[in-house]
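Problem 3 from the worked examples.
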Amino acid sequence: MTDGSVMSNNADTAREAAEKFRATFESIRNQIGHMMVGQEDVIEGVLTSLFAGGHVLLEGVPGLGKTMLIRSLGEAVDLDFSRIQFTPDMMPADIQGTQLLVETEGGGHELKFQEGPLIANLVLADEINRATPKTQSALLEAMQERQVTTGRRTIKLDEPYCVMATQNPVEQEGTYPLPEAQLDRFLMKLVVGYPSEADYAEIVDRTTGNAEIKIEKASNGPEVLALRSVVRSVPVPEHAKTYAIRLVIGTQPHSEYASKLVNENVALGSSPRGVQSLLLCAKVKALMARRFSVSIDDLRAVAHAALRHRVMINFQGQSDGVRPDAVIDSVLAAVQPPHGA
């Protein structure tokens, strides 16, 4: 076989894999759309996190469908799904699992481990900021290490494993802001906004009538894992990688690429995980645009979702009402693509 034939076969294989990815992505999105009205960017972000192999944090006021969205995803993909409603009195054992004394057939007793809701494939962590730091640390281990440790027992979590958390942006009594280390473990932070006027009309029609909405299975765990490999195989040109690195450095105060807004209003910028998130999300964006290579536009399109939770505003910025999205805007304006891009 000639080198040209090998290259052609590789290109054909990549094209087929990319088409399979797009078809599955769209199929799941369509199923979720049977339940959800509007919020296309949020739905795309949630699916991006699933296929990129990361966790996602959804922030929005109550009643915007955050929980419904993730529940719909759990119905559209054949995964072991669980939901945790966090409360301030919840302990780590409530989500990890615990040893129970059970009666055996012979009338004796034995200790048996009962798994908690954290042991699943897709975990909905509802109102995550109502959990105490002790419980949040148990969740952090599962998110980062893909394992649960209870007593002397360590349980490896099956892949795919994805935590999709919701939180209210308005701090209320009984909430505990997520520590920076935990925020950094989320691949993306998505802001769920209010529906449009047209969306309100559709929401009312769907939720006040007799029509039964049914979501069909559009994918499964093994397929998600296979498509994650497709995402990771998307090449990143050197100029795109350089641009992603410079964007992250641009969020760090007094760095070479920092804007005036960053220097004056940011206490901490993004960690290297920000670059990883930018590139993984941009790979999904490229595939959905029928390209098998990451572009500068892909990186700019995902910058806010990948970096907004990794920027800590200092006291001066908080006093002036500076928001992380405004910081990201200034970084995108200040950091220019490398020459030749």
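Problem 4, a separate protein:
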Amino acid sequence: MMDKPQVLAGHRSARRMRDVRIYLLMLPSLVLISLFFYYPAVSGFIYSFTRVTTRGAVWAGLANYQRLLADTRLIASFGNLAQIVVFNVIVVATMPLMAAVLMFRMRNPRAQYAFRLMYVFPMVVPMVVMIIIWRWIYSLDGGLNILLSLVGLESITRAWLGDRQLVLYAIMFVNFPWMGGLNFLIYLSGLQSISEELFDAAIVDGVGPVSRFFLIELPLIRDQIRLLVLLTVIFWLQRFELPLILTDGGPGWASMVPGLRMYHSISRDFNIGYGSAIGTVLFILVFGMTMLQMRLGRRRAAADNR
């Protein structure tokens, strides 16, 4: 019969072997993440301090970052981005939330399932296809001008993506009615996690539908709202395929965004160092907001545990 030290040593050995197997199983994914994510990110950060020529990379110090402050096109792109982000934050905090609340209150399970399916199904459509459809809608002979002509408003038809005053609003209007399948599902799952006892107590206390939303549902899905607001900001900081396909940043740079300016700097101007500097600034912004969100989340959790 084995004594206690031998039994403990056997358990420790088995635990080490199990840990080794886990590490070995995780190793391929870590290698791939390092190869396709961390290596390009670190390389981009290093390139942001260089000027790339046909002879190779030449150290340029902070020259690329100094150029950022004098780049009027980049500065204008941040102004455009701020308007788009504010609009989409308002949208993500209202439209999908309203749809989720209304669906959550449906009595008929079959109707609820059918509506949920209709809201989620557009997620399977590739984003590029959706953007191309909207580009046709905004064209001179596209859907929007056809509709305006049918109702007798030919006088206001125009090339919507060619108007400097309207192009940014046209981009914001893409995805109307702005339900967002993923946003809708996150809100709906948050509502479904609320205890039924709270709703029963509210009925006993005579709480109406509007008061129920502001007193029960809205406070209990604040975490989902905070998460979606953060994801929306991060998403639009990184996104540039929408203005790229619709307008390529034009007319002029009326619809330019920082991500598209970075793309142009690298792919058209072949200025890898300057494009990498723009990408580094965007990464810092995204990382800072993520850290802020995590800190606020910890404070919220600490407050709830008191």
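Solution to problem 4. The mean pLDDT is 86. Residues 4-47 form the longest helix (44 residues).
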